[in-house]
Amino acid sequence: MSSLRQVSKKDSQGDIEAPSDDNAPKTTPTGVAPAGPRSHNPVFLAKIVCGKVVGLLTATDAYDDDGNYDLTKPSGMIIFLKEAVLGIILGMLLISAFITLDHLDIVHFEGAHRIRNAGFQLLNDPETIANLEEASEFKFMTYADYE
What we know:
147 residues
């Protein structure tokens, strides 16, 4: 009726599913990571992410012989987006550094004074505060009102 091979207990040499020793302790293989929250290594994950980001930033496979990149290739679009994002980030960092240096009176930039004064005026405007309170669903209070 059954097409499976029947093996007696005495003749278990031919059956690969039969345990070789019933008294042997059951252990897990040494190469297997334990299950649960201990199996995630944040340092390893950070290394992988950093390696991928550095790999994308230093990729040169879309450049042709003249040093120009081809926007028709997917890698060329990645290089274009990389340059745009890095340019915006570096520009914002540079402006922030200039405003900070101007605020600390290390250097004097009239444009930094104007940006800082415009920001203070904008944040002190009652209409701007009302829009921020409505958008964030918080009520901003002065220190005197708080006490």
